[in-house]
Amino acid sequence: MLRGAFLKRPNALLVLDGVWRTEVIRSFDVGCAVMVTTRDVSVMDVVQGRATLLRIDSGFSEAESLELFRRTLSFSQVGELPEAAKTIHYTSKGES
Predict the structure, then answer these.
(1) Does 66 lie in the same domain as 32?
(2) Is position 90 within any domain?
(3) CB 21 within 8 A of CB 1
(4) Distance CA 35, CA 51 (A)
(5) What is the C-alpha separation between 10 and 31, in angstroms, rounded?
(6) Helix-helix angle 84-91:62-72, to 10 degrees
(7) Structural domain tally of the chain?
(8) Given a cut of 90, is residue 80 above it in pLDDT?
């Protein structure tokens, strides 16, 4: 059911925050872009090279977050992103 919902939305992004187990990654591999936050990068071993690792010591600026969302979700311009992109940035303790 979840897979079907995401397949109907080609620009969907699923955010998994604070993942500690590989089972979470497997369970939410539903055919859309997924952003995972974790302190244990080994949980991503199950995706077998289908991931890009970004090491972050401090939060992204709003502009950096929105640009990452834009590229990941294939939007032409940051201004096309839904307001939820900014909400995710601030909820994830991004910098002002």
Answers:
(1) no
(2) yes
(3) no
(4) 9
(5) 9
(6) 130
(7) 2
(8) yes
> What letter represents residue 49's amino acid?
G
- For 22, the domain range is 1-46
Asked if 62 and 94 count as a contact pair (C-beta separation under 8 A), the reply is: yes
Q: What one-letter code names the amino acid at 96? A: S
With beta carbons less than 8 A apart as the criterion, state whether 42 and 66 touch: no
Under 8 Å between Cβ of 77 and 13: no
H/E element, 16: strand 13-16
Contact predicate 43/49, CB 8 Å: no
User: Is 87 inside a domain boundary?
Assistant: yes
What's the rounded Cα separation, in Å, for the pair 4 and 46?
A: 22
Give the rounded distance of the alpha carbon of 48 from its chain centre. 17
Kindly report, residue by residue over 28-68, the tens digit of the pLDDT.
988 888 999 998 999 999 988 888 888 877 778 899 999 99
C-alpha 44/C-alpha 10 separation (Å) is 23
In a domain, 51, yes or no: no
